[in-house]
Amino acid sequence: MTEEARHQRVFVAGHRGMVGSAIVRRLTSLGYDNIIVRDRQALNLLDQAEVNAFFAEQAIDQVYLAAAKVGGIHANNVYPAEFIYQNLMIQANIIQAAHANDVQKLLFLGSSCIYPKLAEQPMREEALLTGTLEPTNEPYALAKIAGIKLCESYNRQYQRDYRSVMPTNLYGPGDNYHPENSHVIPALLRRFHEATLRGDQEVIIWGSGKPMREFLHVDDMAAASVHVMNLDTPTYQEHTQPMLSHINVGTGEDCTIAELAQTIAKVTGFEGWLGFDPSKPDGAPRKLMDVSRLASLGWSASIGLEDGLRDAYSWFVEHMNEARS
């Protein structure tokens, strides 16, 4: 990474979210001194005119597009219209404004849910658009697929350098611990924490416990994002097919939900029984990323699951009031 790169004006969209805040932490630790952020009150990413005016004013060099409406199975089932509309609008507004204001480098952050429900495991980048999506989060997945194709289209038509990374399931500091709208790790960390405080003898987990999932600490995701953004163009193009397409980001290892729950029980000190409710949806049977492409580009995850869960749990305990809202 050059000294010139550290002085570029870098806009992190979604800096208050778990991923965006981790990217800001990563850039700051590397000595970046021109990081640009705006909260929702200062910049409405759903408003095309506001976004265009912001880019016209700021002379931005790089964009990390981490802003998104996110949630777990329940939230995706209950609010499908909001998930597809808001994500489509945020992505389209930022990518078009970046192009219109001659921003050459942008990194779009997607999701592993872009792949078909029954994709061959581990899921390779080439699996995109080869089968039916998981119904519970299809609107969100379609929006993320559109983001990839936006980047590819601007690259092809205007020779931009807009890259896409597809993370596996993320967790860590800054996660959403809402009792209904959170993902599996924050939901279970909160549930086990509260059960331990109450002295409960049992915790019931949604689903059968059999589905397998891969989990990546958000600080690893931030490190991977900065790594991919700063690869020189020939190196990046050599390892992506088609040119400037998306790259999976994950650990390359997975576990069952039951095994995850057992580890979270250990981390939170819960000593009771674990039960499962098979009447609740399981989602896809397995979601493991093939991360060989990213490995060939010189990056691999470094934070193990138990260590990462301890870090996430410490953050939750320290930020209890804001995490619960």
TrEMBL record:
Binding locations of substrate: R191, W206, R213, D282
Site residues (Important for catalytic activity), renumbered to this chain: S111, C113
Residues binding NADP(+): 14-20, 109-112, 144, 167-170, 183
**Keyword Transmembrane helix, does the record have it?**
no
User: What are the catalytic residues?
Assistant: Y140 (proton donor/acceptor)
Q: Which SUPFAM superfamilies match?
A: NAD(P)-binding Rossmann-fold domains
Name of the top EC class for this enzyme: oxidoreductase
User: What InterPro entries does the record tag this protein with?
Assistant: Epimerase_deHydtase, GDP_fucose/colitose_synth, NAD(P)-bd_dom_sf
- UniProt catalytic activity: GDP-beta-L-fucose + NADP(+) = GDP-4-dehydro-alpha-D-rhamnose + NADPH + H(+)
Keywords (A to Z) from UniProt: Isomerase, Multifunctional enzyme, NADP, Oxidoreductase
Q: Which domain of life is it from?
A: Bacteria
- Which residues does the UniProt record annotate as the domain NAD-dependent epimerase/dehydratase? 10-231
Xref: HAMAP family: GDP_fucose_synth
Protein task:
Catalyzes the two-step NADP-dependent conversion of GDP-4-dehydro-6-deoxy-D-mannose to GDP-fucose, involving an epimerase and a reductase reaction.
Q: Which family does it belong to?
A: Belongs to the NAD(P)-dependent epimerase/dehydratase family. Fucose synthase subfamily.
Q: What is this protein called?
A: GDP-L-fucose synthase
Task: State the gene name recorded for this protein.
Answer: fcl
